[in-house]
Amino acid sequence: MYAIIVTGGKQYKVSEGDVLKVEKLDAQPGDTVTFDQVVAVSDKELKVAGDVKGASVSATVMEQGKHRKVIVYKYKRKTGYHKKNGHRQAYTQVKIDKINA
Q1: What is the pTM of this model?
Q2: Strands 90-100 and 19-23
Q3: How far apart are CA 17 and CA 100, in angstroms?
């Protein structure tokens, strides 16, 4: 059984027991979060749209962290212009506990 959920503007295909990194959520490690935006659920057949109304996915927060640094380098030739910047995106690692369909 799997479900497709939406969080942080992205869609994720999840099954029970999966561990994934999603955009930062306002929760502490050990807390339980519920994803209410479920796009599709597949048990033996795929259910979408109105068929998954009221479905949810519950997960446990494992950790909060930051991804590796991404270097952004801007450069324009012949003008002496260059700019170096770095970015580390924050994430929340969650473990999927149950799909409530």
Answers
A1: 0.85
A2: antiparallel
A3: 14
Residue type, 42: S
Rounded to whole angstroms, how far apart are CA atoms 18 and 67? Answer: 19
Give 45-55 pLDDT, tens digit per residue: 999 988 888 89
Choose the weakest-confidence range: 24-28, 42-46, 69-73, 79-83: 42-46
- Rounded-to-integer distance, Cα 81 and Cα 99, Å: 52
In 1-101, at which residue ranges do the beta strands (DSSP E only) sit?
2-7, 10-15, 19-23, 32-35, 38-42, 46-48, 56-66, 70-76, 81-87, 90-100
What distances in angstroms separate CA 31 from CA 18, 35, 42, 71, 94, one per listed residue? Answer: 16, 13, 26, 33, 10
